[in-house]
Specification:
Oligomer: heterotrimer
Largest sheet of chain C: none
Order of helices and strands of chain A: HHEEHEEEHEEHEEEHHEHEE
Number of helices of chain A: 8
Distance between the termini of chain A: 53 Å
Shape of chain C: globular
Strand content of chain C: under 5%
Mean pLDDT of chain A: 87
Strand order of the largest sheet of chain A: 11-2-13-12
Largest interface: A-C, 54 and 49 residues
Number of strands of chain A: 13
CATH architecture of the largest domain in chain A: 2-Layer Sandwich
Mean pLDDT of chain C: 89
Low-confidence stretches of chain A: 1-29, 37-50
Chains: A alpha+beta (about 325), B alpha+beta (about 200), C mainly alpha (about 425)
Number of domains of chain A: 2
């Protein structure tokens, strides 16, 4: 809460501060005229700084907003993006398409652990690069003679070439559970499951209590421990309000199946970048989709199935 | 004679779906290797080595010698050849008469853009999975036009075991080609204790 | 209401008059508060990255302190039942002091929560009507509800009792006793709901054990009343505060039973983990033995156990229980034991190893220590101020002008309570 505006800082401290009275360089003749100018300056500062913040403070939940209010909110986000990064962005709020239930398949007989998906996701979704470094996808190196066993899993593997002998690779990201423990524990309903299956977060409603992070069995939720470090030249301007728009500090974020892409029919960034085609994505309700074919012809399994989270994310071995 | 005809008919019947489908492939957005419902677009041309295609530019004039031997040219492929080298050699896939095409077991000519039909003769399970989109990569729209990649975009047919891929430019178009080196992984994530202030 | 302004003025007078010892204590607490303020300012500026919490261990020092203090708050009022049953005279004093302790502990709880949140200014989002609380599914909304209800209940009770006594008026038993009786289930529910918050997370096998709620109650019963024991002795010496040795020894005896239960439940949990030896043993193992080279918590585990066992012995043996030096040592030991158990022993092993099997050895930063010191400073300061006002009222030296300055006032109705 370092900004002099009130309430402080929820939109990121990168925004320029309004000129306060102490910065007014008035060589006023008399003390009274100086005070008058100072008072006017303070009022202007308070109003310009408070305008956005006041509206934020008193607004309702995103799900309760009317279309006009949503349009105003999106416009405000675009304006703030411009202030923070100096770039024009498009922030959309596409809803879920009827008749769509997303499914994700991950072929662990193919994944070679190259981590291209991790960094494609970082670029596509505007994650903080450092301080803190946030990765929505975490690739675990596991041992072939132990199978999928977290007691023998290494997130921090380094190599000159992958795959390493005797190892296989197991990427983990938000499983978009049908019975999400995070949604259950969130005290403010800042996170919820959309009809197409994506579990989303309203970054402007989240209070940063991190209950959801404790509740998630997959370590899929990540916290902005500081104002995210996001170089303006790397900003992805094509954004979704519930997805990859730049986040403020102090809120939780996670994989949204690239909601800004998938709701417009495109594959998520991780699916497209994977050099071995280990990632499959589609509509579970479409019998001709790749993911349905996977489920029919291969044997899928659920990560931590005993927790009955019923994810929309399926692991399989093609061979 | 009737037996040969019968064999040919049987072969045509077996390869029927692929054979009939082939006319519409290679760049058109209609029926693709999966056979019809989605829009499947082939990714750009097969990743030929620079300046090598069309092969007939050299082989048009050269004598056609079908005897199995070590070649004086094409060392790039010969030196790495590991595609069952005990039993296979160049002309088991490359056509002796027309070097601009490949041939199936029964002699049917197949353009390079349909090389998957060749691979699928032995690797039928991979072909089946590839047609469904389970094997190999697709990009584009999950609900619409998808771009698919040929086997040879990821597997060097002369040394097919997957190692890595690189982005290349072939005839002015960007595509992917198999590399001879394994992929180097991207940097590991920072440990939490490395993210101190 | 007439007399309120005099009451307030008189309270201010009580708080601002004191001997050197009092002022040294207040000065010390104010220094602690300043340390806290400076630390929190740094955290507010930098973000929570100023702590050592990261994605792998997303709750740590602040929440550990919060959990411990919820237990203290709950236990303080639980003395009411034995006070009533064993007919300690005067029950009023025990109840009031217990509630003052509860109020102070709850203040600290709320401050720790606020310090831990990424956006404390968005607290309205959890309030009904203006916000959207995820009630009844989210245990945190229950926690917020019960903690605030308990705080309000205690404040109402205390203010009612003190104000009536201050004015020399009897308090209505029909008002006082039902509220007191209500505070007991409320107290138990605060700690149970907090336990359920952890217990309900299937993602954290270390917490996802039915034994957690009973363990919370047992450890609360151990640690909370220890403060009361020390406090009663202090008040006996500084004010003419009548409470018999037997009453203090009775509290200690009850605590001994609670300590046994606490140790028994710990043993039950250790048996289950080590005997079945599934992969979930890893969390318990990290705490008591360490995993690989990671042994940061191990000394604390054994220290906590030693303190708890030693305190149990001191409280169990009548000779050491009745001797005030060993009794007070026991109080200190059980506080240390339960404090470590609820902080390092509960929160950190719940997160280590992480959900993906990785180990992050967490230790608090200077900022976290600073904020915690500040919060404890505020809590102790609140308690000091409240006691400084309440005790003179209870012993009769602080009365409304014109009120009868007697010792202990009786309630309305026949017979003493």
């Amino acid at each position: 809460m370092s900004s002099r505006r009130w309430p402080a800082g929820e939109d990121g401290e990168g925004a320029p501060r309004p000129a306060g009275p102490v910065q007014v360089e008035e060589l006023a003749a008399g003390r009274r005229s100086f005070l008058r100018t100072a008072a006017a300056g303070a009022a202007v500062a308070a109003l310009s700084g408070c305008g956005d913040s006041l509206e934020d403070f008193f607004r309702r939940r995103f799900k309760e907003l009317s279309p006009e209010e949503v349009a105003r909110v999106l416009e405000r986000v675009e304006r703030r993006n411009k202030e923070r990064f100096g770039k024009d962005t498009t922030v959309r709020a596409d809803g879920a398409r009827p008749g769509v239930e997303f499914g994700y398949g991950l072929d662990i007989s193919r994944c070679v652990g190259c981590r291209r998906c991790v960094y494609a996701c970082v670029k596509e979704n505007n994650q903080s690069r450092e301080h803190p470094q946030i990765h929505w996808i975490q690739v675990l190196e596991m041992e072939k003679d132990h199978g999928v066993d977290l007691a023998h899993a290494d997130l921090y593997y380094e190599a000159d070439a992958v795959p390493r002998p005797g190892k296989f690779y197991f990427p983990v990201q938000c499983q978009q559970c049908r019975n999400p423990p995070c949604v259950k524990t969130c005290p403010t309903q800042a996170t919820w499951k959309e009809p197409d299956g994506i579990v989303v977060i309203d970054y402007d409603w989240c209070i940063g209590c991190r209950c959801c992070m404790s509740a998630c069995p997959y370590g899929a939720r990540h916290f902005n421990w500081a104002v995210p470090t996001l170089p303006p030249e790397e900003l992805n301007p094509d954004q979704h309000y519930l997805g990859n728009r730049p986040r403020p500090k102090g809120v939780v974020e996670k994989c949204t199946f690239c909601i800004q892409r998938t709701r417009r029919g495109r594959y998520p960034a991780c699916v497209e970048i994977c050099p071995v085609g280990a990632r499959k994505f589609g509509n579970l309700l479409d019998p001709e989709s790749e993911i349905r074919k996977v489920m029919e012809t291969k044997r899928v399994f659920i990560f931590k199935e005993d927790l009955a989270t019923h994810p929309q994310f399926y692991y399989f071995y093609a061979t | 004679m009737p037996r040969t005809i019968a064999k040919l008919v049987l072969a045509a019947a077996l390869l029927g779906p692929a054979a009939t489908g082939r006319a519409a492939e290679a760049g058109t957005p209609a029926a693709g290797p999966a056979g019809g419902r989605e829009k499947l677009v082939q990714a750009e041309t097969p990743p030929f080595s620079e300046g090598i295609f069309p092969c007939s530019s050299c082989h048009g004039d050269l004598p056609k010698n079908g005897a199995r031997r070590e070649l004086a040219f094409h060392d790039e492929q010969q030196s790495i050849f590991s595609h069952d080298p005990e039993h296979l050699w160049c002309l088991d896939c490359h056509d002796l008469q027309d070097r601009d095409v490949l041939h199936l077991i029964n002699g049917t000519k197949v353009p390079f853009a349909e090389s998957y039909r060749l691979c699928g003769q032995c690797h039928g399970d991979k072909l089946r999975d590839w047609r469904l989109g389970i094997h190999g990569k697709r990009i584009g729209q999950w609900d619409g036009a998808k771009v698919y990649f040929l086997c040879v975009n990821c597997h060097n047919p002369h040394s097919p075991r997957f190692k890595g891929v690189t982005n290349v430019v072939v005839e002015g178009k960007a595509t992917v080609a198999p590399s001879l080196e394994f992929l180097k992984p991207e940097p590991r994530p920072r440990r939490p204790e490395e993210q101190r202030r | 209401m007439s007399g309120v302004s005099e009451f307030l003025r008189g309270s201010v007078r009580e708080v601002t008059t004191g001997k050197r010892g009092y002022w040294l204590w207040v000065g010390f607490l104010l220094a602690a508060v300043v340390v806290g303020g400076v630390s929190y300012a740094q955290q507010a500026r930098q973000g929570l990255i100023a702590t050592n919490m990261r994605d792998d261990v997303s709750w740590a020092f602040y929440i550990g302190n919060f959990t411990f203090l919820v237990g203290v708050a709950a236990a303080a009022v639980l003395l009411v039942v034995p006070a009533y049953v064993y007919q300690w005279k005067p029950i009023k004093e025990v109840v009031v002091l217990g509630e003052l302790l509860a109020v102070s502990a709850l203040t600290m709880c709320l401050l720790f929560i606020a310090a831990d949140m990424g956006h404390p200014e968005r607290f309205l989002h959890i309030v009904p009507i203006v916000g959207s609380p995820n009630w009844p599914r989210s245990m945190l909304t229950w926690d917020a509800l019960v903690l605030n209800a308990y705080l309000v209940l205690n404040l109402v009770l205390v203010l009612y009792l003190l104000f009536r006594t201050y004015r020399g008026q009897p308090y209505h038993r029909k008002v006082f006793l039902p509220l007191v009786m209500l505070s007991i289930p409320t107290a138990i529910s605060t700690h149970t709901v907090t336990a359920f918050l952890y217990n309900g997370m299937a993602s954290r096998p270390y917490w996802n054990a039915s034994i957690l709620a009973p363990r919370f109650i047992a450890s609360a019963f151990c640690s909370g009343p220890a403060v009361m024991i020390v406090l009663f002795q202090l008040l006996r010496r500084t004010f003419r505060f009548e409470i018999k040795d037997e009453a203090i020894w009775k509290i200690a005896e009850l605590m001994a039973y609670a300590m046994f239960l606490n140790l028994f439940l710990l043993g039950a949990e250790l048996f289950k983990e080590y005997y079945s030896a599934g992969e979930h043993l890893l969390y318990t193992q990290y705490y008591w033995q360490g995993i690989g080279g990671h042994r940061a918590l191990v000394p604390y585990a054994w220290l906590s156990l030693s303190c708890s066992v030693l305190a149990f012995v001191l409280f169990l043996v009548p000779r050491t229980r009745r001797s005030f030096p060993t009794l007070n040592l026991g109080c200190l030991l059980i506080w240390a034991g339960v404090y470590i158990e609820k902080g390092m022993g509960l929160i950190i092993p719940g997160f280590t190893p992480s959900t993906l099997g990785q180990i992050y050895p967490y230790t608090p930063t200077a900022v976290e220590w600073g904020v915690a010191i500040g919060v404890f400073g505020v809590g102790f300061l609140v308690f000091t101020v409240l006691v400084k006002i309440a005790v003179p009222i209870l012993v009769g030296t602080f009365r409304a002008p014109g009120a009868i300055a007697t010792g202990h006032d009786t309630p309305e109705g026949p017979g003493a309570h």
